[in-house]
Design the sequence.
């Protein structure tokens, strides 16, 4: 397998689900990683399709990480709440209500950085590029509350990078492979505060390009999250 080095030429684009080619591209990627490799998502009803999708895709913003030459090497999505739509983890964890209004909340899911990107720093940078794009979209569209379902090690890894997700006070879920996942929430204001306290230069890059009235350049003190 040819390894793809992450560098400044990589870019994140919003994918158009209504475009058949773009939809096929990210659904096939999700099928390989989320169904075949990890078993995190159920197999499609038609095994011959080799594509993974769900009922939340029509209400999501889809992001693709592209290498030179237009190779898709990463993916993530923001599932939108509000307008009568609930987030996936509401059903999964039996949550009747969330701490925040759904029309200001999103759920982050289906994150992928492919095996074409070498493990270590390069793959971490790929994830950061996706998170930066999702962050900027969320800031521009007033969606400051992020929800995720994840294993604890993943949540702790996000905290270490400046995303202080807090676990919701609900029982974790255990799947048929004995994998335990937790529901967690992030206030982007807390992320901004932590990023600026950990790495001011990196935080400035994260908000670069946003309008001055949206980009937070002198945030409040960082939130301390209990482990």
Sequence:
């Amino acid at each position: 397998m040819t390894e793809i080095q992450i560098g400044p030429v990589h870019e994140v684009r919003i994918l158009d689900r209504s475009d058949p080619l773009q939809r096929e591209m990210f659904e096939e990627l999700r099928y390989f990683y989320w169904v075949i490799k990890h078993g995190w998502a159920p197999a499609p009803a038609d095994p011959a399709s080799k594509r993974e999708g769900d009922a939340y895709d029509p209400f999501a913003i889809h992001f693709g990480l592209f290498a030179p030459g237009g190779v898709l090497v990463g993916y993530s999505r923001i599932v939108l709440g509000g307008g009568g739509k609930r987030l996936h983890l509401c059903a999964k964890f039996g949550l009747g209500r969330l701490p925040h209004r759904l029309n200001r909340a999103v759920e982050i899911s289906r994150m992928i950085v492919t095996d074409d990107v070498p493990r270590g720093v390069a793959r971490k940078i790929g994830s950061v590029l996706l998170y930066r794009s999702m962050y900027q979209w969320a800031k521009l569209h007033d969606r400051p509350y992020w929800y995720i379902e994840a294993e604890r090690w993943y949540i702790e890894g996000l905290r270490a990078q400046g995303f202080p997700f807090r676990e919701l006070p609900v029982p974790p879920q255990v799947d048929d492979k004995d994998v335990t996942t937790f529901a967690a929430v992030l206030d982007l204001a807390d992320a901004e505060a932590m990023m600026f306290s950990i790495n001011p230069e990196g935080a400035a890059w994260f908000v670069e390009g946003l309008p001055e009235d949206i980009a937070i350049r002198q945030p409040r003190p960082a939130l301390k999250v209990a482990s």
User: Anything to note?
Assistant: The domain at 11-153 is CATH 3.40.630.30 (Aminopeptidase).
